[in-house]
Amino acid sequence: MTESALSQLNQMTTVVVDSGDLLAIEQFRPLDATTNPSLITAAASQPQNIKLIEDAYAQAKDEGYASDALIERTIDILTVKLGVEILKLIKGRVSTEVDASLSYDTQATVAKAKELLALYASYGVSSERILIKIASTWEGIQAAKILQSEGIDCNLTLLFGLHQAKACADAHVKLISPFVGRILDWYKKAENVSAYPIEKDPGVLSVKEIYTYYKTHGIPTEIMGASFRSTSQVLGLAGCDLLTISPNILADLEKETAIVKKQLNTPMASTPQETVAISETEFKHQLEHDLMAFQLLQSGIDGFIKAREQLSELLHQSLGFSAEIKN
After folding, report:
1. Which of 112, 133, 145, 166 is catalytic?
2. Which of 4, 132, 256, 275 has the greatest number of C-beta atoms within 10 Å?
């Protein structure tokens, strides 16, 4: 009997579930899992998670928080509590994202990352099982550089170009998440194209470029393709270090039986190759002149900020929070 595409993919790539849905994570049992503000908001809307919300709110209130700060603390505690529940279902790491509104503030990002890790520690979870997820702005990458120097592993997200990947390598970050689907969406709209063959898919090609650069230069930072729109995009990157995939696409891969071939084969250089570090000025110059990366980075940050605001509103409307906060 032919193995499923998902089973074959698992033999050449570490498959990660991109979800805060505990039932989906339990179903697929990945090694790692990733979350983001949108996924946390979706998870908070599920009836089975109401107890986590209640407990997060009670803890924040007991800590002395009030008014809007009470809601913000509740969100952080809820985010970590969901991470703890996810870690009960997997053997590896969970990525937990810093508030996207801090994406252009290096010191605030570092401080928030340490707050989240302190919460995990209070629940008995060591930092080795956490990846702090940060947007790939210049300031975010510098925050990751500080955290990495202190032994705190980071996942740099909303990454759309080689210049961001180079800066992440300079910062010695543990892992990057180059996006695939959002790049495809942007080019389809910009070029008024309904579809691309997979060998010309701009999102897939972007990850391949980064992968080749990292491997040929002996850069140990892990590459995790993210933001997929189809199984063909996923399979187009078979062989990537990791791929984080939504439950619906994982389910489709489980049904497919086509032969999966490794698409990324660049061997890691035996010794690190010397590279010229990208400066802040050069980074921002390249970002500003890459319309796709510039627009997608900012829209991604805005989207995650909006998702957190939606979660805040959900909490205000739930469990009588509004009335209690006003009192």
Report:
1. 133
2. 132
